Amino acid sequence: MIRAENLSRHFGRIEAVRDIDFHIRKGEITGLLGPNGAGKSTTMNMITGYLAPSAGKISIDGIDIVESPEDAKKLIGYLPEQPPLYLDLTVDEYLDFVTEFKRVPKNRRKADLETIRDLVKIGDVRKRLIKNLSKGYKQRVGLAQALVGNPPLLILDEPTIGLDPKQIIEIRELIRDLGKEHTVVLSSHILPEISATCHRILIIDKGKIVASDSPENLSGRLSGASGAARQKLLIKGDADAVQAALENIPAMGSLSTGKGPEDGLSEAVIAAAGEGDIREDVFRALAAADLPILQMGPMDLSLEEIFLNLTTTEEEA
Amino acid sequence: MLAIFKKELKSYFLTPTGWIFLAVFLLVSGISFATQLVFPGNSQYTMFLTGLLFVYLFVVPLLTMRIFTDEKRFKTDQLLLTGPSNLWGIVMGKFLAALAVFLITIAVTFIYPLLLSFHGKLDWPMIIGTYIGFVLLGAAFIAIGVFVSQVSEGVVSAAVLTFCAIIITFIIDFMQQYMPTTEPSGLVWAVILIALPLSWLYSSGKNWAVTAAVALVLAVMLLLFWFFGRTLFFGLIGKSLGWLSLTRRFGSFSMGILSLDAILYYLSFSGFFLFMTVQSLEKRRWS
Could you give the ipTM of this predicted complex? Predict the structure, then answer.
């Protein structure tokens, strides 16, 4: 759907995006993740044709955005970081303008707008001036604007910014639904945002892509071993006793113990030597030593850790 | 283009801008109508319209100052520039909407000659001719305003710069006669005129070889003109400034002459500034 090759963008001497390549497949929800100023918005502005790349090429469904912008732009619905709203118009007036501007055929306009209004739930503010709407509603009107004309590709720059938690969940669900029929690219600097909705994540830092994979794989890849191998335990009992009880398990690969968060509790991080599952052995060994397990769970790196990991290694390099 | 035109026109009358434009223009023209024509019992309507030209100074900036500055301020240009419309469609839509507000206002002033016609005989062809010139001149000023609002960052600076640009076209006519007319002065002026695009050429390409080659060709041409067609330089400063004088060409209209020359001049003047606006929008994407 989107193919970017050797994409670069300078603003004067500042390099906002440096020589990135990516390919986004049809029907995928892709998340662009990166700290503020990483080049997410610049990349999105280039995909949508708002900015021209300093070097490199972008094609949308095989159509080059610089060579035939009008054809390519028809395929894109774009919600920029700040929703492009005309504050003096009412919601209905604004959406009518957008439908006409995006050349939706006359006989489809009414039905289309009806569907969109239901989808983003702005039916009850239709007659109000946009300048009087709350941030959350403005964001939804911005999203409605991107959906006009039912474009196959949606580019959403920080779609949930400024929304309350309930609205965030609603918008996430909406994006997931939209992802069934559209190709969606969304950006965020907030991780749960991305991991909750996206099939694939592109992590951008300082204008470069530092990782590109599914949320699960990214997490697995960085934890070093295969996902289930490392376990974290919270045990009632003394750390030394735990150490003694676990040391004797034959399949144990690595083991570290320490004081827990409260008095009388201790923590242990364990990993099997091979591919095998040692959780049952751990349970029996600790039960025999009368050390009750309060918690045991896989210790994948969370996306936050991956993120920090990737972006800080980049810094050192 | 039509979508933008309709939306812009609507916005003019949803916000105070359109109404203020109407009110100021009609107030000034009304006072002027009453004091110049009604009370003295004068029927020189074309003279009255010519006298109204100065109102452009104040009302055109009002009409055009927001056209692109607000799009940039509220980032709505991201909607326009990522939509399936070309830049000409956007610029023309906005220009025509501003022109429409202007035409509506002008249409209201038609009441004045109608009122006069009850009391005396008016020279209608001359009045219509003057109106045509009046509208063409207005269109040219609006085109300047559209361009200025695209290149300036804020609403206030757009208004002030448009005001300055219009005032320059007013005084240029008057300044023209005080310019030196000797041939050497014309040569100096020609060199300055050539140096400006050359410096632009260099700054945009940073290419010494190309700039030097172009400069050499132009210098040779200048020398040829100097030795074989020296009369060209006589009064060159005044002549070239005269090309910018919008008000001077209005004279033929107010005499009832529909000169194709003047009509084409105004249309191409407007066209040039709209073209520059499109270029400036395009440039923003690349820099």
Answer: 0.85
Taken in order A206, A212, A218, A224, the sign of the CA dihedral is: negative
Hey, what are A131's tokens? 């300048």
Query: Above 60 in pLDDT, residue B56?
Result: yes
> What would the pLDDT profile of B195-241 be if each residue is shown by its tens digit?
888 888 887 777 788 888 888 999 898 888 888 888 888 888 888 88
The 3-state DSSP class for residue A233 equals strand
CB contact A22 to B (< 8 Å): no
Q: Tell me whether residues B11 and A86 touch, CB distance under 8 A.
A: yes
Question: Given an 8 Å threshold on Cβ–Cβ distance, is A86 in contact with B76?
Answer: yes
Q: What rounded mean pLDDT belongs to chain B?
A: 89
Question: A257 at the B interface (CB within 8 A)?
Answer: no
Sheet with A265-272, side-by-side order of all strands: A252-259, A265-272, A230-236, A293-298
| Mean pLDDT, residues A51-68 taken together | 91
The residue-averaged pLDDT of A104-123 equals 92
Determine whether the interchain pair B78/A89 forms a contact, defined as Cβ–Cβ distance below 8 Å.
Answer: no
Chain A residue with the nearest C-alpha to that of B10: A89
Mean pLDDT of chain A: 86
Residue range B53-80: average pLDDT? 92
The mean pLDDT value for B116-143 works out to 89
Kindly state the tokens that stand for A117.
């209004």
A48 touches chain B (CB under 8 A): yes
Average of per-residue pLDDT across A11-16: 86
- Tell me whether A67 touches chain B (CB under 8 Å): no
3-state secondary structure of A302: coil
> Chain B closest CA to A139's CA: distance in Å?
14
Q: Does A82 touch chain B (CB under 8 A)?
A: yes
Helix B208-228 / helix B183-205 crossing angle, nearest 10 deg: 160
CA geometry: angle B120, B121, B124, nearest 5 deg: 135
Q: Kindly list the residues from chain B whose CB atom is less than 8 angstroms away from the CB atom of residue A105.
A: none
Closest-CA residue of A relative to B16 is: A88
